[in-house]
Amino acid sequence: MEKYCTPEFEFKKVLILSNVTVFIICVLITWPSIILYALKGYRYLGIGGMSLLMGVFFMIFSVLFNYLSKTVTIYFDRKRMYVKDGDKEYTGYLKRDILGFYSYNYDERSSSFITIKIIFKNGKVINITDANISSKKDADKELMLKQFLLTAKRQLEFTFIKKNRRRSLLKIGAHWYSRDPNEKDSNANEADIV
Fold first, then answer.
1. pLDDT per residue over 115-174, tens digit each?
2. To the nearest 10°, the Cα dihedral for 119, 76, 74, 125?
3. Which residues of 83-108 are buried (b: 16+ CB within 10 A; e: fewer)?
4. Closest residue by Cα to residue 77 from 101, 99, 94
5. Alpha-helix residue ranges (DSSP H) falling in the chain
6. Could you please report the per-residue DSSP string of 162-185?
7. Are strands 80-85 and 91-94 parallel, antiparallel or unpaired?
8. What angle do helix axes 19-36 and 49-68 make, rounded to 10 degrees?
9. Which residue windows are transmembrane per the record (predicted)?
10. Percentage of the chain surpassing pLDDT 90?
């Protein structure tokens, strides 16, 4: 019997840290620097030094996020979703254990910024966020994200459920995809038959 699997979706230069962790890292770098500038730097550089400080912040964050970024690969077979984090081995997750995921609606929105948050029934979370904060659009990446969204919805039997208002305000993937609560779980039915 031939093994069934979808194509591999490779997300390059992504952070797998939670948004809270990224925020804490930014605060731990930014606030001490601003306080130090207010105490010592303003005297020598004046108000013009703030633009220099902002340039230094941008450079530090770019280098740090590029250092922390990895390549994440995802593919599906009949019963599992496989995730490979960097150089590690693939980890398989049963499809029925996935509660849902947040993402941009790549079907309707043309964006090449990666932001996907996969949530499992046991509370485990996989965050995949683009480390590149550039606003340039990449047509190949955009097409791959559309294909991933279609494949993930089909393989996991998910539909669009709702838009999260808070995530929408933060400009991160706000569309929640999950199983329709009105439909019976086909994975459970399949398990009963086997």
1. 899 999 999 999 998 887 666 778 888 899 899 999 999 999 998 888 877 776 666 778
2. 10
3. bbbeeeeeeebebbebbbbbbbebee
4. 94
5. 19-36, 42-45, 49-68, 139-156, 165-169, 186-193
6. EE-HHHHHTTS--EEEE--TTS--
7. antiparallel
8. 150
9. 20-39, 45-68
10. 29
Residues of the chain with CATH 2.30.29: 9-16+70-193
Residues β-bridged to residue 129: 15, 115
Q: Report residue 24: phi and psi, to 5°.
A: -65, -40
Architecture of domain 9-16+70-193: Roll (2.30)
**pLDDT confidence of residue 98:** 94
End-to-end CA separation in angstroms for the chain? 18
